[in-house]
Amino acid sequence: MSETIEQHVARLHRHGVVDMHFDLPMDLYDKRARQNVLATDFLEDLDAGDIAIAGVALYIEDRYLPEMGLRVALDQIARLYHEVDGSDRFAVCRSYQEILRAREQNRIALLITMEGVEPLGGDLDLLRVFYELGLRSLCLTHVRRNAAGDGGLFAPGGSPRGGLTPFGRDVIRECERLGIIIDLAHISPAGFDDVLEIATKPVIISHTNARKYFDIERNVTDEQIKSIGARGGVIGINAVLVALTKEEATLDRYIDHIEHVRDLIGIDGVGIGFDFFEFIYRQWSEAEQVAFQKKFTHALFVPGLAKHSDSRGLTRRLIERGFSDDEIEKILFRNWMRIFSERL
Ligand SMILES: [Zn+2]
After folding, report:
1. Per-residue pLDDT tens for 267-291?
2. Has this prediction a pTM greater than 0.70?
3. Residue-wise over 85-102: b if at least 16 C-beta within 10 A, else e?
4. What is the C-alpha separation between 187 and 195, in angstroms, rounded?
5. Which of 57, 71, 164, 202 has CB atoms 3.0–4.6 Å from 115's, for a disulfide?
6. For residue 116, how far is its CA from the centre of ligand 1 (angstroms)?
7. How far is the CA of 21 from the centre of ligand 1 (A)?
8. How far is ligand 1, taken at its centre, from the CA of residue 242, in Å?
9. Half-sphere exposure of residue 131: CA atoms within 13 angstroms, side-chain side
10. Dist. CA 60–CA 138, nearest whole Å
C-alpha cells in the first residue's frame, strides 16, 4: 500500500520545520495593547505549517531611530516573553537543550535574533545584556548604515565599500566569545568579506537568495555561497526576494534558489529563512504601503509561499521536483539543528 503525497509530506514534517527569519517581535510590539496575540494571530498558521522553531528578529523601524532604538528593542523582548508566558505552546530557547525540551513539550521554540545592531548604538557592553535576555543570533546590519557597517543595497551594485567599522569587528569577536551565532544577511559585500576574515566559527545567512536569479547586492554571489559552505554554515532561502518580476516570483523559482545553493555547496548548506511579512504589510495604511514599496521596490509576495501554513505546499513541490527525503529533511529541519547543536 503506497503512501499518499499528504502522508509523505506529513512524514517529512514529523520533526517540524525551522524558519530562521520571522519579524514577530516587531508585530507583537505594534499590538502591545492586546493580550494573547501569539495564540490568536499566529498559532493556527504556524501549526498548519508544522513550524517547530523560528528565529524571531528584533528589528527597529526608522521612525524610532536613533533615540528609541534600545528602548523599542527591549520592549519587543518584553512583549515576546509576556506572550510566551501566556501560552503553553511556545518557549523562548537559549540553548540546543532548551530547544529539544521545548519540542518534547510540543512547544514552538523561539530563538531571539537581531536584525541590525541599532539597539546597541555603539556600546559593546549592551551586547552582553541582550545575550542575557536570550539573544542567540545576530545580523550586523539591515540596509541602512549603522555603527557596525553598511547593508548591501537592493541594487546590482553601488553598496558602500567601507566594510565593517572597528565597532563591527568588536561585535563579531564578542558574539563568538558569548555564543551568539553570526548572521551575514543584509551586510554589504565588503562587510561580508570582513566578517569572514574575523570569524573563526561557522556563520549563517538567515534569509537571503542567490544573485544568479535575483542580482542585487543584498543577495549573495556564487563565491559568497561557497565561502559559507566551506565553513560549514547554512543559508536560509528567503521567500520575498525570489525574483525581480511578479511573473518570475513563483514557488518553483524559490526552489531554484534552493537547488542552486545545493549544487554549489551541497545539501548540508541549505535551510529556510522565509521572512514572511505580508501579514505586517497588510496591516499598514495605504501611505505606509506606498512608502515601503518605494523603499523596497523588489519585495514580492510569492503566491503559495506567503505564510507559514504554505510550508506543506513547499514540501509537496520539493518532492515533485525530485528532492530525496533525506535532502528535504535537511533543508526543513536538520541543517539548522546541526548549527544549533554546534553553536548553542
Ligand atoms: Zn531582512
Report:
1. 999 999 999 988 888 888 888 888 8
2. yes
3. eebebbbbbbebebbeeb
4. 9
5. 57
6. 9
7. 8
8. 13
9. 16
10. 14
